[in-house]
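So, who can interpret the following?
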Amino acid sequence: MPLNIAIVGAGIGGLSAAAALRLAGHHVEVFEKSQFLSELGAALVVAPNGIRVLTGLGFSCENARSNPQSCFELRDGPTFDSVTSFDLTDAERRFDVPLYTMQRADLHGELHRIATMEVPGLPDIRLHLGRKVLTAKPAAGILHLEDGSSVEADLIIGADGVHSILKPLVLKGHPQPPLKTGLSAFRFQIPTESVRDDKDYVSLVAKKGHGPSILADISDENTAVHMVRYDCQNGEYQNFVGIHNTVLGDEDDLVGSMERQFAHFHPCLMRLVKKAPKITKWPLNIHEPITHWTRGKVFSLAMLLIRGQGANQAIEDAGALKILFEKIHSPEDVPSRMALFEKLRKLRVSRVQIMSSVRVGKEAVVLEELRNQADPPGSGNLIIYLPEFAAKSEYNVAYSDVPTNFTERLTHDFGYNIFEESIKFFEEHLLGPRARSPDCSQDHHSTPSEHAVVG
């Protein structure tokens, strides 16, 4: 039975959820407070765990001006020497899909296309711009908008970001405001053509292959300062994110502030900074894992994650919603499906959330916290990818509940197949006589191995 679903927020998470729930057969309306449909920010990494879902929703990486990446590596910032790397050339074999980097606006634009295109036999998504939600009544499933109108829905999904209207309603009595990390991010982009004359940078790219680099001072165990670089828009631009200790009042001289924060890094980086036509600075805030995600008929998907998995987890959420809300028989089944969703996602998202508080390579710092969010809590089961067994399919996917290093962290993040995990979870948790498994004759996957279970 089709549900009437209202989504608050038309960002990456909101449009992904809208596209997924429409494919599950539901009537979806999206309410966005701004008049213009755009996504702020520079570029981002869309990892295999996110691409897997996007592919299942009809997303085209070609339309998003993105190509597969061949490696992901950690390098010493002062010397550019390689510390460790993660080969992505076999990512399609290991994880079913590659890793991509893309401009946020390109990702958002393609999500808008698939969310609003006509799909034969399925209802259109109704997208409302300039419709600001003021509050909601979770028990009744009613949204109250700034223009005085009200909207009633069987399910309300809050995908309205850091300043979420719905999240405080879900957490009523247990507020969890964002936590300041003490870190900020410098962001800038440079046309690739403008750096071809920098021999050091050309050499760095030639050494590492095509993919993201994390540049960190390996000799300093205590610092969180590091730089992330990768290309976007089919290689036409080089994207940089410089994570640094927040300095109040440096907004008027961001170039000088970057020079001071990264003075001990390779001189090539400072030459690139001076080529940047524009530098922006964003404070990095996070949430601790929230206690619960639902109240009444309201989901809150608004979380803060950094270190490259924020958008990917929002996209994973959409994949879970698609599977868990297929073949629903009545609005009365919504609470049980919401409970399933929260149970499925909570530990996984909490682990990623905890890891977002430390840079790659520093996973041991949060090891105990990660163990508390393992499945089951306190465990630390690792299934590691072993190259010597690469020909055997049972070793082709690596997965780790409690990552302890760079490789295990990427394996934990990239190797997770939310479609397969959702199907498995649904079948293991039948809730009542009317609950049944989703129709797996539908194509949820980008590969034929539809029922292989990861984990």
